[in-house]
Amino acid sequence: MSAGELRIGEPATSAAGVPGVAHALARCRELMGVRRSVQTLRLLNQDDGYDCPGCAWPDPRPDDRSRAEFCENGAKAVAQEATRARVAPEFFAAHSLTDLATRSGHWLGEQGRLINPVYKAAGSDHYAPVGWDEAFRIVADELTGLENPDEAAFYTSGRTSNEAAFLYQLFARAFGTNNLPDCSNMCHESSGAALTETIGVGKGSVTLEDLETADLVLVVGQNPGTNHPRMLTSLERLKRAGGSVVAVNPLPEAALMRFRNPQRVSGVLGRGTALADQFLQIRLGGDMALFQALSARLLAAEEASPGTVLDQAFIAGHTTGFEEFAAHVRAHLTPGDVATATGLRPDEIDELAGRVLAADKMIVCWAMGLTQHPDAVATIREVVNFLLLRGNIGRPGAGVCPVRGHSNVQGDRTMGIWERMPDAFLDALGAEFGFAPPRHHGLDVVDTIRAMRDGRVKVFVAMGGNFVAATPDSAVTEDAIRRCRLTVQVSTALNRSHAITGERALILPTLGRTELDVQAGGPQRVSVEDSMGSVHASRGRLAPAGPELRSEIAIICGLAAATLDRTATATATAAAPTVDWAALAEDYRRVRAHIANVVPGFADYEARLDEPGGFLLPHPPRDSRTFPTPSGRAAFTVNTCEIRPTPPGHLLLQTIRSHDQYNTTVYGLDDRYRGVRHGRRVVLVSPDDLAELGIADGARVDLIGVWTDGVQRRAPDFRVVSYPTARGCAAAYFPETNVLVPLDSTAKRSNTPTSKSILIRLDVHPEQ
Ligand SMILES: Nc1nc2c(c(=O)[nH]1)N[C@H]1C(S)=C(S)[C@@H](COP(=O)(O)OP(=O)(O)OC[C@H]3O[C@@H](n4cnc5c(=O)[nH]c(N)nc54)[C@H](O)[C@@H]3O)O[C@H]1N2
Ligand SMILES: Nc1nc2c(c(=O)[nH]1)N[C@H]1C(S)=C(S)[C@@H](COP(=O)(O)OP(=O)(O)OC[C@H]3O[C@@H](n4cnc5c(=O)[nH]c(N)nc54)[C@H](O)[C@@H]3O)O[C@H]1N2
Ligand SMILES: [Mo]
């Protein structure tokens, strides 16, 4: 654990290597001890082991895997779960909810694993132990007492397995609601919306092999050194095979600049590979203008030398809307607009266009730097336009690569965790279980908060995650949660969502990925889908953190059985599904048999999970250039790029992850690659902006949110750090800054909070 004063050093010029391994192992030893560390890490991402609870980056083929197929941050995620620290029952007698609400996320997480179901009664300020059956009865009472099922919402965080996710959405829909908000609403929703509309499938179209054999990979709005470290191994392989990498980012993220592969001796010892061949230091939100400018250059090059630049056969045979798109892009933005939006010089964009023209096979990767902006969906559509021009989709080494966050967030969607599942899915679900699932769309994350605030949602159930800390407008969200009659958290570790609750509250402790899951039918495995659509099994081996823990599946089945038995008797007219919940919890093969009947691509599920490395789900654009859009073709789209210069005296703030956190779980107070130690309340601003604003490096400031509703949002007491970020932009860590994200500031169409686009000013503290 770090102690002491906040310290700012130089940002690192390379990432990983010895320090990365050493940090991870020290953390593992601290939380798990030596023997448990060895035992646990040995099985991480191995074919007979468990899936890393960190990010969704895919594993290499089994014959191509390292014996230590994990990264520093994966090991830290495992240590957090497999820690020996426990939240004992006495803990809640000693700590009231009022007390817990004053604690930092870091402190809460450090208390260790939750091991007993606990209940906070109305009017009480303490949780007290409760039996499982009693807990299920409390939930069933509240749910069946609602006037209509849409007064409940069922949140999911993306660690939940396919099996648990499938049962959870079945429970919600059998109860009668599509209110299934999930972390994806705050994450890659914009990618799903843009890709579904343009290529007909809301998922990425490349495999690891594609990534390693492309000629050019653009890494846009993503910090893989911290958030997807194993991706760097693939980028390094690509470079060794002669490919190039371009980073587009307001921040010079260390790993993209230089990477030392800890899995190779030379990487541990040497200076490493310079990963990015070109770095475009773009302004926040400038990517749509950049991609339009690139496409305009490709169109001009084709005009100068017809038949040599665009893939005319692909455009004619597989797409719609080319002419409208081309006309729009040629005329839409002036060079001045592009400069204002991107902050880039024309020659930088020319250089990148030159690389694009030289590349036969190209992939664009992106993450939260594209998805959490007001125009995120249009921006990603523009990425697709750019790729379609040269036929860069549906062939080896080319395609779209949205890099997912949570380890099973993509699988949860496939299993039906979405407030707007298409009718085909609901038809199949209804047919399988003999009931009529509700058809009207449910609430996403932002709309759930609004509904709780307005008294329309009264019961909130969370399958994992940390809703109050991960969502925008913290003060508004916390008030909204407090208005609920009952909030239920199925969790592994303590977090702020256990301190800020409804009138009554339950914590239901659950097994994690690393733990052995034994049911009446014997030891169980679960399955997950990675960021590239590959599904594989995961089996934990550690003894559970406590004897009372239940698996997520057992908890869902318990809740569903208690609740639906009663709705069935109360509303005999509604066709209630006939599900033997107890039998499903006994043997997860039964769950998979249902999934195989309902979800396309899962035929023979059980047998294919036995295949080494699992199996790849179908993806028609990737597999056969078949585009399941209404026209049957990939769609070029016309997107209007709004140029929004930042008003003088203000900055555009992005909220990001440090190297020592997993979303709202804060492992430690260092952000090694960015040179920040022992503290998180820092705001990174470019030295030129600081000079213009007349603010000194190291100054103490409050961050003041500026938004159209006139409400003042303030994040107090930050230290200014002079940092090489793009002009006009600032960066600070989430979740400390979520208080600044207005609930109503969301991306068009995806309704994703604009966590990377918050207008602020700095309020400098008077000299002390
Ligand atoms: N260790 C660790 N791993 C994680 C997570 C974690 O918290 N810790 N979280 C997981 C989850 S759920 C997710 S979604 C992913 C998140 O993975 P990332 O998206 O890499 O995470 P962020 O920290 O949000 O970083 C956003 C990056 O985009 C850049 N950026 C921001 N705005 C713009 C823009 O307008 N244009 C461009 N071009 N770049 C921009 C930022 O400078 C930063 O480099 O990681 C997953 N993996
Ligand atoms: N300002 C700002 N806000 C953001 C973002 C941002 O970039 N900026 N990013 C957004 C993104 S991309 C995402 S994905 C969301 C994340 O939102 P969430 O998914 O809600 O948050 P996490 O912090 O990942 O949730 C951590 C908690 O999950 C529980 N947990 C861990 N493992 C398990 C498990 O195996 N089972 C169960 N049942 N519980 C478990 C633990 O109790 C832990 O405290 O946050 C979003 N919020
Ligand atoms: Mo995410």
Report the portion of residues in β strands: 15-25%
Overall tally of structural domains: 4
- What percent of the residues sit in helical stretches (DSSP H or I)? 25-40%
Bound molecules: ligand MGD, molybdenum atom
Protein model, in words:
With 768 residues, this protein is of the alpha/beta class. Helices cover 37% and strands 16% of the residues. The chain has 4 domains: 67 residues, no CATH class; 290 residues, Rossmann fold (3-Layer(aba) Sandwich), CATH 3.40.50; 215 residues, Dimethylsulfoxide Reductase, domain 2 (3-Layer(aba) Sandwich); 114 residues, Barwin-like endoglucanases. The protein is built from 32 helices and 32 strands. A hairpin with a 4-residue loop joins strand 20 and strand 21. The longest helix is centred in the last third of the chain and has 19 residues. The radius of gyration is 25 Å and the shape is globular. Bound molecules: ligand MGD (2 copies) and molybdenum atom. The site of one ligand MGD has 33 residues, from helix 11, helix 20, strand 24 and strand 25. One of its GO terms (molecular function) is molybdopterin cofactor binding. InterPro entries: Asp_de-COase-like_dom_sf, MopB_CT_YdeP, MoPterin_dinucl-bd_dom, Mopterin_OxRdtase, Mopterin_OxRdtse_a_bac, Prok_molybdopt-oxidoreductase, YdeP_MopB. It comes from Parafrankia soli. Its cofactor is Mo-bis(molybdopterin guanine dinucleotide); [4Fe-4S] cluster.
